[in-house]
Task: inverse folding
């Protein structure tokens, strides 16, 4: 039977060890998750320009002032009051149009997309890379896509 190194044992109480043992013994059910939709920044820009989706910048006003806002994006601070209600209002005009979420690097939008998908949202698209990019995806600015200044 494998043993736990003493530096780990000493910090865990009996209750925590029992909980860990219980969790480890539970059956694991692997369910195939449908990958959530995403677009590159260039694809999002082209689709927004063509009127095929609603582009929403979920960053804070300080971030908008720092980098500007993607051209054509609606500014909706995800830390603001009634964020989800305001986002839901965007689904009404026009109905059925996907909402593409963009942030600074793509981290917040992918997390938000997963959270809202778990609540039943189906028409959200993650814009990978955000404004500044990340090691995997080029950002809006690196692609040379247009921004408008804020305020």
Result:
């Amino acid at each position: 039977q494998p043993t736990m190194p003493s530096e780990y044992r000493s910090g865990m109480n009996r209750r925590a060890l029992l909980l860990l043992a219980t969790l480890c013994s539970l059956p694991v059910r692997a369910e195939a998750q449908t990958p959530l939709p995403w677009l590159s920044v260039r694809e999002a820009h082209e689709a927004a320009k063509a009127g095929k989706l609603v582009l929403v910048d979920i960053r804070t006003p300080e971030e908008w002032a720092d980098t500007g806002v993607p051209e054509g994006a609606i500014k909706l601070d995800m830390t603001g009051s009634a964020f989800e209600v305001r986002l839901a209002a965007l689904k009404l005009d026009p109905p059925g149009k996907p909402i593409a979420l963009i942030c600074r690097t793509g981290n917040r939008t992918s997390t938000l997309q997963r959270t809202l998908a778990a609540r039943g949202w189906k028409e959200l698209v993650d814009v990978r890379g955000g404004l500044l990019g990340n090691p995997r995806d080029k950002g809006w600015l690196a692609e040379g896509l247009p921004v408008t200044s804020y305020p």
Residues 1-32 have pLDDT under 50 and may be disordered.
